[in-house]
Amino acid sequence: MQDTVGPPMDAPTKPLRHQPIWLRWLAAASLARLPQTSLPVALVLTAHEATGSFVGSGLLSGASAMTYALCAPWRGRQMDRALLPNALGWSLLAAAAGLVATSIAAAAGAPLWLLLVFVVLAACAGSGVGGAYRSVLPHFLHSTQLTQAYAVDAVAVQVAWIGGPALAAVVAAAVGPQACVGVVAAVTAGGALLSWTLPRREPGSPTRQHSSVRALLGWLWAPLVLNAGIGINLGALDVALPALMTDHGEAATNGGLVLAGLFATSAISGSVYAALPSTNPLRKVKTRTVACVLMAAYGALMASAAATPQLWVSVSCLLVAGLAFAPGDSAVILLVSEQAPPERLAEAFGYFSAIGYVGIALASPVTGWFVTRFGAGAGLLLAGLAPLVAVVVVVTARGSKK
């Protein structure tokens, strides 16, 4: 039975790690997020096994990502008006069912168009779930704990980006590509079951959600711009890092190892940042300032990697840049909860996720063109300039408004 729990009015007496509700939330959100990081690899391998073509692989993976991007705001709005965590659980189960259907259809030799239908349905059901999880936090955590909570969540994202692709690759090698999608479905179902142990959150009142989408985007413009820069950065890295390896005579697959290393250093720094007590001076700095400074440092270090001729220097710059990523990303996430009204948090996080997915989807082909025309350094430069330009836009626009 789910209890309705509200945010504590008094200052918290126990740290996050000693709060069972928070630990259950972290486990449920992590299980729900892992499929989003392992699914692209799983779909690529499944489609290639079924069709023998990487064109089909790209279509299947791209259809999933674009469905997430297009449906996340709409599904987030639905989550705001639904009873949580019930809506979370049923959405994840529907996504798991779509993935099971995809796995069975691929094993049965179904045509590509049928696989696309199942993948789109699964992505539609699962979109908006990540934002809904984050929207629940202010309902059972004290406001002074949200900074640390979002910092830990950012670390969990880095771990998911390390473990997700690795999980897909291991299962595909040991059992087969079709089983890979099935395992992703099982993890999704596990997240659904665990979500039902979270506290009950009543549906938001439609009368309090009457403000226009334009007004909501106006409140969120700063974190949206910053997350667009992050999305472009990640999309560019997916292409630029393998190209960097081949330019230096290394295997293209080593690019994935470098990206995993970047996320690993990011997870380490994010863990340190999350462990800072509320009395630490860094906790007193405005969230927007933290986000802009760290994202600017991340972009500058990454851009410097493009200017170095030695491979080991470029890789070192990328790993050091990762130290700024998770703390900066957690600050950008916290900005959403600070700017959006509480009754529209899931929708706000839906737009936040959507613009990141769009940035990734658009940056990959553009970076491919840059890399083909000018070399891997141009792709790395684009990856570094994206967060830098986003920070400049946020700072200058805020200055003009003042």
UniProtKB/TrEMBL annotation:
Residues 219-402 form the Major facilitator superfamily (MFS) profile domain. GO terms for molecular function: transmembrane transporter activity. InterPro entries: MFS, MFS_dom, MFS_trans_sf. The chain crosses the membrane at residues 51-71, 83-106, 112-133, 154-175, 181-198, 219-237, 257-276, 288-307, 313-336, 348-371, 377-397. It comes from the Bacteria. It is found in: Cell membrane. One of its GO terms (cellular component) is plasma membrane. Its main location: membrane. Keywords: Membrane, Transmembrane, Transmembrane helix. It is a multi-pass membrane protein. It holds the Pfam family MFS_1. This is Major facilitator superfamily MFS.
